Amino acid sequence: MRFATTNIGLFAVLLLAACSKAPTTGGAPAGGEATAPAAAPAAPTDADKKALLAALPVAYQGANLDNGRSKLALCKACHTFGQGGDAGVGPNLWGVFGRKSGSAPGFPYSDGMKALGVVWDADKVNTWITKPSAMVPGTRMTYVGMESPTDRVDVIAALKVATSAPPK
Q1: In which band, very low, low, confident or very high, does the pLDDT at 40 lie, cut at 50, 70 and 90?
Q2: pLDDT, mean over the chain
Q3: Structural domains in the chain, sorted by start
Q4: Which pLDDT does position 122 carry in this prediction?
Q5: Alpha carbons within 13 A on the beta-carbon side of 105
Q6: For 85-122, how does the pLDDT look when each residue is reduced to its tens digit (9 = 90+)?
Q7: What's the whole-number mean pLDDT along residues 35-42?
Q8: Is 45 helix (H, G, I), strand (E, B) or coil?
Q9: Global pTM value
Q10: Which of 70, 52, 77, 45 is nearest to 157 (CA)?
Q11: How many beta carbons lie within 10 A of that of residue 141, not counting itself?
Q12: What is the C-alpha to C-alpha distance for residues 12 and 141, in angstroms, rounded to an integer?
């Protein structure tokens, strides 16, 4: 039994490693001159976070961002969140709120996701992360879903903060 448990743990580590993308550090364009990596945007202030949460429906405004960030860490195995970030196994999620499904540049979406035709908002993201295969049968996203309504609210609030520019 110990052998099986060890193998399952090893498989999980290898799976996560396969889904992860190493950060890019700038490369050399055709002219040979190296480009500098993009500067990381400043972390949102408490006022920025409050304003971003206020833009969500009331049900999400009292979310626990610490719990949301903790649960959102699972998504980093396949997704990137930063502005201008590369797609991983899944698309980059910067600007996902207000974006049409299947439209992030640089990601080869399934036909089902391209045909879904929704604009992502908190409630649609909630439906999606509850059980992706129920929203898009045959989706290539292997994530089975998140049962806890509280965790989903927290994740959506954390996703909003992590993938949105601070309001002006």
Answers
A1: low
A2: 81
A3: 44-162 (1.10.760.10)
A4: 97
A5: 5
A6: 999 999 999 999 999 999 998 899 999 999 999 999 99
A7: 52
A8: coil
A9: 0.74
A10: 52
A11: 18
A12: 17
Phi, psi dihedral angles at 140 (to 5 degrees)? -80, -10
Quote the CA–CA distance of 99 and 59 in Å, as a whole number: 21
Q: Rounded to whole angstroms, what are the CA distances from 46 to 43, 63, 157, 161? A: 9, 14, 14, 10
How far is it, in rounded angstroms, from Cα 62 to Cα 129? Answer: 19
Cα 51 from Cα 45, distance rounded (Å): 10
**Which residue type sits at 28?**
A
What per-residue confidence (pLDDT) applies to 147? 96
User: Dihedrals φ, ψ of 119, to 5°?
Assistant: -105, 125
How far apart (Å, rounded) are the C-alpha atoms in residues 32 and 29? 5
**Average pLDDT, integer, range 48-56:** 91
Q: How many residues make up the chain in this entry?
A: 168
d(CA 120, CA 17): 28
Q: Count the neighbouring beta carbons within 10 Å of the beta carbon of residue 2.
A: 6
Q: Quick check: 56 and 158 in contact, CB under 8 A?
A: no
The confidence score (pLDDT) of residue 66 equals 96
Q: In angstroms, what CA-CA distances link 122 with 49, 138, 140, 143?
A: 15, 23, 22, 18
Dihedral (CA of 83, 13, 108, 36) sign: positive
